[in-house]
Amino acid sequence: MLRVQGLHFRADWEKVVTPVIDHLETRTDVDKERIALWGVSLGGYLAPRAAAFDHRLAALIADGGVYDIVGGQALQNAPPGTSLEEARSGFIEAMMSEPDELNEWFFDKMKDSVDMRWSIGHGMYAFGESTPVNYMMALAKMSMEGLAGNITCPTLVCDAENDTSMPKGTAKALYDRLTCPKEYRLFTVEEAAGLHCQIGAYILGNQVKLDWLMKVMPP
Questions:
Q1: Domains and CATH numbers, the chain
Q2: Distance between CA atoms of 92 and 96, rounded to whole angstroms?
Q3: Which stretch of DSSP H or E encloses residue 186?
Q4: CB < 8 Å & 24+ apart, contacts of 76-79
Q5: pLDDT tens-digit profile of 79-97?
Q6: Vertex 24, ends 18 and 26: CA angle to 5°?
Q7: CA 116: distance to chain centroid?
Q8: Residue 30: which pLDDT band, with cuts at 50, 70 and 90?
Q9: CA angle (163 as vertex; 162, 168 as ends), nearest 5
Q10: Is 125 helix (H, G, I), strand (E, B) or coil?
Q11: Are 26 and 5 in contact (CB under 8 A)?
Q12: Strand partners, 49
């Protein structure tokens, strides 16, 4: 989709999922009452976002859950006592008021950090943006603020004890704001599943999620 068709990430993922469900409902080999959506990594935002708008889903897995990436990142660097909403607002205000200075700062950091060079560089490519600030502003649109409570189907929110790819607490923030039937599963270092999306322990991760699906969607 990205490399061949040039289709980039978008925040309003219901525009992607709803036509898929429309198609599935036309098929005779699909039980339209048992359609589940499983979002992995950034899909931990994309899938809940779609589920907030399309209530035909029978179950949802956010693996791992994402409430607000940019807000979560900003909160980790904010003074004690700052709320997630305040951290997010301050970050966006800085991006809008000093884009040139911040772009220069990002590019300088990318020269010295392989990790930042890949994460920012790949982010710009995947989102179709030409500058770090534009990429961060596009990423900032991916927030479940005001939407999490609209999800109605049973939801499993996965979290990782040592997730280095998502801000700490963003999965729990999503779980706490859900009003639907929900379950929270923290994968730990002790069970070798503490990295992002249970990297290195997929058998365990898949077993937990498939068992949960069998529980909420019994045959």
A1: 14-68+143-216 (3.40.50.1820), 77-140 (no CATH)
A2: 6
A3: strand 182-187
A4: 76/167, 76/168
A5: 888 888 888 899 899 889 9
A6: 115
A7: 19
A8: very high
A9: 95
A10: helix
A11: no
A12: none
